[in-house]
Amino acid sequence: MEKNQWDELLSKLKHSVGEANFQNWIAPLEFQSVSEGVATFSVPTNFLGNYVSQNFGDILLHTMSQRFPEINRLSFHVGSKSTAAPVTDTKPAVSARSTEAVTAGDMPGAPLDVRFTFDTFVVGKPNELAHAAAKRVAEGGPVTFNPLFFYGGVGLGKTHLMHAVAWELRARRPDLNVLYLSAEQFMYRFVQALRDRKMMDFKQIFRSVDVLMVDDVQFIAGKDSTQEEFFHTFNALVDQNKQIIISADRAPGEIQGLEDRIKSRLQCGLVVDLHPTDYELRLGILQSKVEQYRVQYPSLDISQNVLEFLAHRISTNVRVLEGALTRLFAFASLVGRPITLELAQDCLADILRASERKITVEEIQRKVSEHYNIRLSDMIGPKRVRTYARPRQIAMYLAKQMTSRSLPEIGRRFGGRDHTTVMHGVKRVEELKVQDGQIAEDLELLRRALEA
Ligand code: ADP
Ligand code: MG
């Protein structure tokens, strides 16, 4: 392999693992040679070699073997190019796999996803607090809030943030023992330890970590002995002033079947809510993904209006949003067509249908009356003064635009008004929208609030 071929692979790797990982782990590798299917690298320390092999081995191998199919193993040697050279000229002895045990030890953690770093996390209003708290913990300074508790619906980035903290801590504070696992894995290890009569080992391992992260803690609700053990582990670590990060799909107080004493302990630290994404955040996430796809599909381009369309229409969860984009690129490259709005509608019909959120007329009425500071009863009631009539017409307009209700159905929900009244209201707002900048702005704001 030539030097420029290696450089080309490096730029691919940078995209796959993110800037921070790349600088910390990939950049220090020195490519040496390929021989009998084994690609050899020299590394500055044993630790780095083991770490890269364990955490980036798969992606490194995958990336290299795409370009050079003959490569099927990786090998890492300590030393600079010159001193290591004689070793690799003979048969390479150490495979990527055989170096694993050294760093992995017996730590029962779950593997970290290489894509989940701070570099790839897009920050917006709905997640800025969670991001800031995660960043703070990732600095590895003195423990200030314990535990840090993240909660929010599926696909809002809880796992991503936890992995990002783990990656960053590993890079900044390699002296710390950082353990990430799901609550389900915690239970599994616990049950296994019970079965194998290895409870002492289990306790020993969990109580010797410096940072413990347990994902999806709602899983242990209702599982009594696991909860009990979790509680003890938790207390032991808090007593030693060790950092704990927990995530769940809802606030601690709302997890059914979780013991009260655990709930109250979980609430002791910082509880941060990841809010549902808003339009801007979704667009930001799509744009950052597109950057990554540009490398993979250099000939395909996607226009801003397709991204805006997706950000508007897929508002449920980021995983679905990402899946949609992946499918779109794959489909377009297969059929050799440009990515247009029609193509998107075509290829994503099922996702678009499933993520259609049903907005109700009642929700619209509520939001609009809040916005104009009037009572809901006045919006629906008979008063015809402009203070009520205008918001009423705006709500009618939004109901016509954003729901599939017919004019008579909308009329019924506005205190039994006639469909011609609704029609008149909708027309009036359409005129106002053009003449009055304030109304246009209100409409846009309301629409976004309703879509969020
Ligand atoms: P959760 O654990 O809250 O269910 P995940 O962390 O697994 O959600 O996120 C789901 C997917 O969405 C992942 O691929 C993740 O990278 C992506 N994602 C979520 N939030 C963001 C964000 N703010 N920026 C970039 N990617 C995100
Ligand atoms: Mg998760």
How would you explain this protein's 3D organization?
By secondary structure, this protein is of the alpha/beta class. It has 22 helices and eight strands. It folds into four domains: 88 residues, 2-Layer Sandwich (GMP Synthetase, Chain A, domain 3); 173 residues, 3-Layer(aba) Sandwich (Rossmann fold); 76 residues, Helicase, Ruva Protein, domain 3, CATH 1.10.8; 91 residues, Chromosomal Replication Initiator Protein Dnaa, Chain: A (Orthogonal Bundle), CATH 1.10.1750.10. 58% of the residues lie in helices and 9% in strands. The strands form two sheets. The chain has a five-stranded parallel sheet with strand order 5-6-7-4-8, with helices on both faces. The chain has a three-stranded mixed sheet with strand order 1-2-3, with helices on both faces. Strand 1 and strand 2 form a beta hairpin. The longest helix has 22 residues. It starts with a helix and ends with a helix. About 6% of the residues have low confidence. Adenosine-5'-diphosphate binds next to helix 7 and helix 14.
